[in-house]
TrEMBL record, chain A:
One of its GO terms (molecular function) is iron ion binding. Binds 2 heme c groups covalently per subunit. The lineage of its organism: Bacteria, Pseudomonadati, Pseudomonadota, Gammaproteobacteria, Alteromonadales. Residues 15-101, 123-205 form the Cytochrome c domain. Heme c 2 binds at C137, C140, H141, M182. Heme c 1 binds at C34, C37, H38, M77. It comes from the Bacteria. Residues 1-25 form the signal peptide. Keywords: Heme, Iron, Metal-binding, Signal. This is C-type cytochrome. PROSITE patterns: CYTC. GO terms for cellular component: periplasmic space.
TrEMBL record, chain B:
Residues 1-20 form the signal peptide. Keywords: Heme, Iron, Metal-binding, Signal. The keyword Nucleotidyltransferase does not apply. It holds the Pfam family SoxA-TsdA_cyt-c. This is C-type cytochrome. InterPro entries: Cyt_c-like_dom, Cyt_c-like_dom_sf, Cytochrome_c-type_DH. GO terms for molecular function: electron transfer activity; heme binding; metal ion binding.
Amino acid sequence: MPIKNIFRSIIGLSALLLVQAPAFAATPPPAMVCESCHGTAGLGTPNLSPMLAGMDKDYLVEQINHFKNGNRKNPLMSAMAMTLATPEAVEQVATFFASLPAPVINDIEKRGDNVIITDPARKLVYQGDWSRNIPACATCHGPSGLGVAHFPRLASQHADYITSQLTAWQSKQRSGDHNNVMATIAQQLTASEIQHLAQYFAAIK
Amino acid sequence: MKTLSLILGAGLLLSTFANAEANLPDRQTELPAHAKAASSEYLVPRDLATIPDSEFGNKVKLGYSLFVNSQPMRGQYVGNEQNCANCHMQAGMKANSAPLWGAFMAYPAYRKKNDKVNTYAERIQGCFKYSMNGVAPAVDSPELVALTAYSYWLAMGGLLDKYDMQSTPIPEMSDTVVQLGGKADSFVLPEKIAAALPVEQRNKLAGRGYPKLAKSAETPSIERGEIVYKQTCASCHGAEGQGLKQDGVQSFPPLWGKDSFNWGAGMHRVNTAAYFIYENMPLGKSIQLSNQEAWDVAAFMNSHERPQDPRFTGDLKANQEQYHNHQGYYGKSVNGKVLGEHAFPVKAVD
């Protein structure tokens, strides 16, 4: 390719990027339908929809697919997920919400930072209860429940959503977790533990 | 099995006692494996919330903290991305997951070969050198004092409760006595426990170590193990065995590579890894894999390069012959590469 053409290509490419740049920052068309419930900032709404902002992209892809294939059951979300007809659309939506900022947590708590923990929910989060084979939630969901790769963030998630999901694991309305690990753990939790865990994570801000 | 228990991590006491830099001899010998006992026999340590607010209690608390998050010791004593609790589930409390209470009561241990004794503190030094690919803290360092105090607290609380002394506080003992371990004649147990648990029986607590897994029908296969790994393990430990790390915190441990345990650690043995995996993985589930799958995936995990055996002095063959007469791939050729030849550095600390 002659030098001149290379330059022309570069200029052309740059121009293309410049033109497209604002489009990346804005909501991609397939995600517009999501915003009506999850909000333009992806922060969700109590008693309606979970926070998606800052979630791991692969996790979001997986969950949309779970709604499509029936591993997760929710009439509204199943229908909405079906509107994302192609893997590309699913990817685009997940990438968009993953890129939105989640609330910043400043003082993160790691396992071992505290030994004497009196709040039962917090104790489950950092120490688990192995008499029932429940590992510390923080083992997989990270310090302060910030999430670890495809193990979703729980910090500042809406309490009603965490409650409904733990309950869904118990009633087998939700599945598709790797090795059935989360379902197994959720089965062990009491209703009151679920309530307290949900409130605990929601309060991490 | 008796032999395995006897040769447990023995080493030199002598003048090297407090010298963390000395070359620790063949300490990381095989973990004991036992037939699985009925769960009712296992010691159950007391709730962490009962740790007293005292000087002793503070040592126990520090021990717990360092055990579940060992990374504050990174660069000083720890040379990789491992935490003690990665191999000892439930913060070292869980039966059949090499619980600290079981190990504590098994030391000091004698080694027939050279008739030397290894204290409990020295056994933990071995963990730093091998599993943590680091440099062992001195016996009298705050870290080692804390880890031994925590182990003692787990063991004593479990014993007191088992022998119906739930309201008896855990006796405070001097660091020196605690660091020897619970199998010393000088380690005084309440009369009732001492009568039920004579010194020579203390290394046989139910649930100690990892339970022995019957041999697989077919020789462990790296190839079959790779399939098991991809299906069952990779979502937590990564496609390349690197584990999962986020926000600067390694949540799931690397299983091989530069940040994993080294070629001297117990877990590089295929049998030890198979016992551990079968009993404890996936996290929170236990016993999901078949016997054959556990052996195969243990073989796969241990057929990758990792940090060098700290006892290596330049001659791979000699090191293999001296220290690797067990089921493992050190010094063996896998996919055209001899493992150990391209090992990552040891003691990756300041």
